[in-house]
Amino acid sequence: MAARTLTINGTLISARSNETVLEAAREAGISIPTLCHLDGLSEVGACRLCLVEIAGSAKLQPACHTTVTEGMEVQTDTPRLKAHRRAIVELLFAERNHICAVCVASGHCELQQLAVEVGMSHVRYEYLSPDCSVDISHARFGIDHNRCVLCTRCVRACDEVEGVHTWDIAGRGTNARLITDLNVPWGEATSCTSCGKCLLACPTGAIFSRGSTVAELERDASRIATIVAARNERW
Amino acid sequence: MNRLKLATVWLGGCSGCHMSLLDLDEWLIDLAAHVELVYSPIADQKTFPEGVDLALVEGAIANEEHLELIQDVRERSRMVIALGDCAVTGNVTALRNPLGEARSILQQVYIEHGDPRGILPSTPGIVPILLDQVVPIHMIIPVDLFLAGCPPSGPRIRAVLEALLAGTPPELAGGFG
């Protein structure tokens, strides 16, 4: 595999030619915030948190979906990017009802942690306070739409790793909602194998194991990458 | 010695943030050497005084009394700190927002789910009228500092107060829940 030489935040690094800017940055020890990215799953570039500046391009590019090129000059942490990231996290908080104090994932939540990382002291936008449902028709798991950020990690884990595609998204914009099968209650979704990969992949308290209460939901999302690696390398 | 005039305010919240403040135990005695508590739920003072240096505000804006009081707090205080998640985000106090306007909430709570079936509370001039939507305080007045947490821990409150007393900027980002 050919090597590419590029700079990230002024530091010269080398990467394999098929690597993304995100992968190259992480290998070089440079952290870029992400939310919809999960190791082991395909990239959708949906959350825009990993946007970076690339010299010669007026548009910001998602690091997870941009392949490295020779001589590329990348900036990951400029004041402009920081302002955008903070605004994105604030908008996520404003769009649904993320009440950390009464959430199963509190203390183990990627969104809650992102708020700290991007320096979100408060939300400057008006809260939409949508009326969202909670579906606990499944015997083992529940889905709380109040906490969903539409990252589609559950959709991709179910489709790409379990090979089922029980999950998808219906509707558009602020009306978009996760659905199971053809928008039936999760407990009636006959395609679901109850494998729990969606639960592992979820970054917030949206998908939870039934019976867990405030701050009790601990998961290890890296197990998705472990499963994928085990298959690819025939462990 | 000219002590800092400190006020603490309790709006739409559970008083947990005040409990957290009281959790500072004997440090409160050290604090008392530097501040004069001029208004608080734990002080006998009915109206919000003039010339306050620092106001710690717990709770969201949930009714007409809060709406009125927070204006006085802003006008009469040099610095206003949103103390805890209800003041910063609306938090648990704002859980009723998706359920609709105040009349609909009262109907659901007192009539539909009331056991025994109750009546809608109506005591003009005594119990304040609920607002249709609960909002964090920065939606009504400019806020100088945000100290999140449900509640913010005693040591976090102490760190902020110590930084302010020393005239240095406190560390505040995040910490929701």
Automatic annotation (TrEMBL), chain A:
SMART domains: NADH-G_4Fe-4S_3 (SM00929). GO terms for cellular component: membrane. Its cofactor is [2Fe-2S] cluster; [4Fe-4S] cluster. Keywords: 2Fe-2S, 4Fe-4S, Homeobox, Iron, Iron-sulfur, Membrane, Metal-binding, NAD, Translocase. Its main location: membrane. Belongs to the complex I 75 kDa subunit family. This is Bidirectional hydrogenase complex protein HoxU. It comes from Candidatus Chloroploca asiatica. The lineage of its organism: Bacteria, Bacillati, Chloroflexota, Chloroflexia, Chloroflexales.
TrEMBL record, chain B:
One of its GO terms (molecular function) is iron-sulfur cluster binding. Pfam families: Oxidored_q6. Residues 14-163 form the NADH:ubiquinone oxidoreductase-like 20kDa subunit domain. Coiled coil: none annotated. The keyword Oxidoreductase applies. PANTHER family: COENZYME F420-REDUCING HYDROGENASE, GAMMA SUBUNIT, HYDROGENASE SMALL SUBUNIT. This is Oxidoreductase.
